[in-house]
Amino acid sequence: MARFAHTVTVTALDRGWFEEAAGALVDLLDASREGPGGSVVLADGRAVEGLRLLKGRHLRPGARYGEIPAAREGTGKAGTAAEAADGRAALVSGAGDSPVTPSSVVLRAWRPSHSVEAESLVVEDGMSLKLGLRLSEPRRPRAVELSLAGHQPGGGSLYRFSGRGKADLAAWWAAVDRLPTAPPAARPPASGRAVHQLAKARLTLTPRPAEDGSWRITVALSVRGRWLLRPVGAVVLFFARGPLERGLREAAESAAAEWNTALAELTPLHGEALRAEIADALTDPDGSAAL
């Protein structure tokens, strides 16, 4: 087995603001309804950009959502109602002249006070990917669970893989609320596993507070071969150790830089101002309405 670890420093996220923003987003979506052409419309009458109900009833188990292809040049931002209906049918059937992205999201559960579950199917570059998401207590998120399964149709077992991950947000907040001199959490609050016929891997994230109020997050990756291929895997990992270690370091540093940039640009709004900002981001993500 090979193990790699790297620690990065990131800007701390305020728990109160995060939970307030999550609650505002859930409330906005919970008050939404189905509009013309399958659009998802907020309570103020504005449609969520790019999101369409393709099948089922809005916010009911089994509801399928997707993105309608952009209107052809000269038809305006939204196109006509007929074009929207045509695009909706094309997404469902996979037919039509417009380029279609064969992906959709199926809502499995919508219980804002308990849990939200969704499943996404994406077909890209010959690979079929199924992603699952479960959010516990969405208005004040306590845990996020992810699942992933992928395969290439007709590609055999070597083209199949799966993975699962979980972030215990309650444990995460407890870990970053410790004194900087305290030892790190005994169990990583966030972890994930990936399995392939040839190998399996485990990734963990362990945070701890720094003296200046930021977070120090240790990213650890362990990889090992499976079954009779363990000796072969050990040899491969011996020669691949350098590239794997460098790849983990670069990925962690890149993610930390993007996180820090995003939080530096974040305006910590609250109350109605925060709710309005989230609604604007859902309906006009590019800010074109203000131009």
Give a structural overview.
The protein is α+β, with helices and mostly antiparallel strands and 291 residues long. It has one domain. The protein has five helices and 13 strands. A 13-stranded antiparallel beta sheet has the order 1-13-12-11-10-9-8-7-6-5-4-3-2, sandwiched between helices. About 10% of the residues have low confidence.
Provide a compact summary of the structure.
The protein is α+β, with helices and mostly antiparallel strands and 291 residues long.
Order of helices and strands: EHEEEEHEEEEEHEEEHH
Could you tell me how far the N terminus lies from the C terminus, measured between alpha carbons in angstroms? 56 Å
Given helix and strand content, the structural type is alpha+beta
Indicate how many domains the architecture comprises: 1
Name the poorly predicted regions.
Answer: 71-87, 89-101
Tell me the β content.
Answer: 35-45%
Largest sheet entry: 13 strands, antiparallel
Shape: globular
User: pLDDT average, as an integer?
Assistant: 84
Number of helices: 5
Residues in helices, as a percent range: 25-40%
Cα Rg: 22 Å
Q: Strand order across the biggest sheet?
A: 1-13-12-11-10-9-8-7-6-5-4-3-2
List the topology elements.
Elements: E1 2-10, H1 15-30, E2 33-34, E3 39-41, E4 47-55, E5 64-67, H2 81-93, E6 103-111, E7 115-124, E8 127-136, E9 143-151, E10 160-168, H3 169-176, E11 190-196, E12 199-209, E13 215-225, H4 230-264, H5 271-283
Antiparallel strand pairs: 1-13, 2-3, 3-4, 4-5, 5-6, 6-7, 7-8, 8-9, 9-10, 10-11, 11-12, 12-13
Helix pairs in contact: 1-5
Give a quick set of tags describing it:
single chain, globular, 13-stranded antiparallel sheet, 291 residues, 13 strands, alpha+beta
